[in-house]
Every structure is written in structure tokens, then in C-alpha cells.
Amino acid sequence: MKKCICLFIVVCLLVSLSGCGLFDEGLGVDMDSLYISAAKSIVADQLRNPSSAVYNNAYVYEKDDYGRAIVYLDVSSQNGFGGYARDDFWVCINEMTSEGEYSYSKLMSYCTSEGLVDYLKSANNFGEPK
Description:
Number of domains: 1
Strand content: 25-35%
Shape: globular
Helix content: 25-40%
Number of helices: 3
Radius of gyration: 20 Å
Largest sheet: 4 strands, antiparallel
Distance between the termini: 53 Å
Strand order of the largest sheet: 1-2-3-4
């Protein structure tokens, strides 16, 4: 009986501490989903009708060792004429916390050219210490 009570107390303690952010990595905070969510918010601010946006594809293209990530989004949204347009966006997130707070580069690429992605990376010192 004492073992069960001790185990229960330990489990309760771990669960309460996880809310403090001490175990975010161990409990599996999906940083990629946070990067993608941030990129969707950034792109939505650029759209004429953000409520019409359909994200056909979204993924973290590349991350560096310093907290930066390049996120790819394939977005269909209503344009100013009422029709739908489909565009590719590449967004550089410069910093991300496990709580979802982020900073990003105002520079974005709107097409899939590898040269433009390379330019986005170099403009944000991707892969270099901050």
C-alpha cells in the first residue's frame, strides 16, 4: 500500500512539474508543429482573405543548430477578385520557444526556386551562430 501511495505522489509531482516547462523536451513538445503554426500565422497576415486559406501542404524544410527553421507552406486562398490562387511560401522562423512564442524574418520567398530558398537562408545567417 505504501508503494502505491509513493508511486501516486511521484506521478502527481511529475505531472505538476511538466506544466512548468521543465520536461517539455522529454514529454515530446512537437517543435515542428510550433514552427508550422507560426508560419501559418505569418502567411495569414499576408493574405487578402486569411479565413479562406487552405493549407495543402506544410512542413519544416530545414532547421539549424541555433533555433532557426525554414518552413514550407502550400496555400490556396481567395484573392481580391473572389477567385482562388495557390501559392508556395517559404518562411524563416528565427527563434521559437516551447510556449509557441517566436520571431521571424520579414523576408519571405513566394516560389519554390531553390535559389530563392538559398537566398532566404543566407539573408538570415542560417546555420551560423547568433
